Amino acid sequence: MHIMALTQPCPRGWLNELDQSSRGYTQAEFWKSLARTCERGLLDAVFIADIMGIYDSYKGSWQPAVQHGVQAPHDDATLVAATMAAVTDKLCFGVTWNTSLQSPYNTARTFTSLDHLTNGRIGWNIVTGYVKNVEDNGMGQLLSHDERYAQADEFMDVVYKLWEHSWEDDAVVRDRVRRMHADPSKVHEIHHKGKYYSVKGPHMCEPSRQRTPVLLQAGGSPRGLAFGGKHAEALFTINPTPEKAAESVRKARQAAVAAGRDPSDVKVLAGVCLIVGRTTAEADEKYRAAREAISLDAAFTLFGGWTGVDLSAYDPDDLIETIKSDGMQAVIKNFTYVDPGRAWRVRDFGEWLKGGTLAPDIVGSVKEVADELERWMRVAGVDGFMVQPYTTPGSHEDLVNLVIPELQARGLFRTEYEGDTFRERLTGADPRLPQRHPAKRLAIGSGRT
Ligand SMILES: Cc1cc2nc3c(=O)[nH]c(=O)nc-3n(C[C@H](O)[C@H](O)[C@H](O)COP(=O)(O)O)c2cc1C
After folding, report:
1. Which of 35, 67, 147, 417 is packed most tightly, with the most Cβ within 10 A?
2. Ligand 1 geometric centre to CA of 338 (Å)
3. Does the CB atom of residue 96 touch ligand 1 within 6 A?
């Protein structure tokens, strides 16, 4: 079972008095302490979410996001990863980075640097972005949904060429006699010319332990899934039930096969929130407190950020069928699936979102939560979980102190780390990408010039 724990460099769940993130996220010591906790729990990785603009659809303004602390203010995920990595040896990091708003050349450099500094413990959560106002801030242009993925496909070609083709493994010779630090004949330009990018190369960095970071992705649309099936080594899905997650797993594996890969080349992790107590009563009390800390305005702000739909135009008691919006249809479909017979109202969206995530809650004693995770593994066929927090570091501590020992006692989770790099941890194989991965068609020795 693979387990990653989600975090984000911003306030998350700050209305809950047990949460420390709103004061902590600007403090290096907060991140170091969280890293030590996650490494003590032998988690695969910490997953660091990131966005590059303030949500501003709700009430047509960024002010609700700032007022309610909805992923605003927000720091930079790569720097948090570097801070957490500095106090750990084995814990890995999935770092979110945006293909629509970054340059591939700089991306390759940033991730090679992170992979150097962590000795191969870096993964990249590839996102195409959805916050429109980045354009107002001179950060580039967001193309239409599907074209963003077409752009991202080309972006991946460029970074693959830089990571896998540009520097040969033995290019750096450090030969004082020949006065040669690196042998230029073993460092190659990439000459990429495409629709969106023109990059000559060579890559600025010598190869890192993994060369290409572990590739993570969470696209849910058909186009997003095709992208994930081609590139990702682990995909995240959010589904309300394990039965529904089983469909996502099937689609993810099909997408991998369609891209010429093995179905097991893509691990699928299900997003879940765990609310666990030493007893059922303690868990129920924690859950009650967490639900009380939900602000409807905050949830609507988040919803607006994700979909562009401003729910302030509706009464919280309006039935959701009355809302007319193309952007909303997919979300409504997914939402009503939980209980198709029920009359869903606008306020139900807010309560479901909990101000943070659509991932389902698993609430109970240690035994009950472990039973439920086992059921998800069995029914959905997922490879593990992306655990999302209600509070930080409380949710992470509960995972590590309560849930992990129970999973270990059941023989479901590792009792020591094996392999040093993220890719070894995830696949049990080599630190470098497997030959079947499309990036390898662009690698040194692949015949491309
Ligand atoms: C667990 C999880 C974490 C995500 N983290 C981020 C993130 O940090 N930043 C971001 O821009 N998008 C993030 N997303 C959004 C996805 O990258 C993607 O845009 C979204 O799932 C919609 O995909 P689609 O456009 O293919 O339907 C996340 C999604 C999931 C399920």
Report:
1. 35
2. 21
3. yes
- Is 130 close to ligand 1, i.e. is its CB under 6 Å away? yes
Q: Is the CB of 228 under 6 A from ligand 1?
A: no
238: left (phi over 0), alpha (psi -120 to 50) or beta: beta
| Residue 343, C-beta contacts closer than 8 angstroms, at least 6 positions apart | 319
108-152 residue pLDDT tens: 999 999 999 999 999 999 999 988 888 889 888 889 989 999 999
Side-chain-side CA neighbours of 300 within 13 Å: the count stands at 21
Residue nearest to atom 23 of ligand 1 (CA): 219
CATH number for the domain including 226?
A: 3.20.20.30
Q: Is the CB of 330 under 6 A from ligand 1?
A: no
Which of 10, 302, 350, 335 minimizes the C-alpha distance to 131?
A: 302
Measure 317 CA to ligand 1 centroid, in angstroms. 28
At residue 330, the pLDDT reads 59
Instruction: Establish whether residue 236 lines the binding site of ligand 1, counting it when its CB lies within 6 angstroms of any ligand atom.
Output: yes
pLDDT at 346: 86
Question: Is residue 287 assigned to a domain?
Answer: no
Ligand 1 contacts CB of residue 356 (under 6 A): no
24 with 97, same domain?
Answer: yes
Kindly report the pTM of this predicted structure.
0.95
How far apart are the C-alpha atoms of 137 and 123, rounded to whole Å? 27
Range of the domain at 389: 2-276+358-442
CA dist 448 to 8, 129, 200, Å?
A: 39, 31, 15
For residues 258 and 325, state if they share a domain. Answer: no
Is the distance from the beta carbon of residue 126 to the nearest atom of ligand 1 less than 6 Å? no
With a CB cutoff of 8 Å and minimum separation 6, the contacts of 407 are 1, 370, 373, 413
Indicate whether 30 and 119 sit together in one domain: yes
Tell me the CA–centroid distance for residue 379 and ligand 1, in Å.
24
CA of 226 to the centre of ligand 1 (A): 14
Of 344-358, 382-396, 403-417, which gets the smallest average pLDDT?
A: 344-358
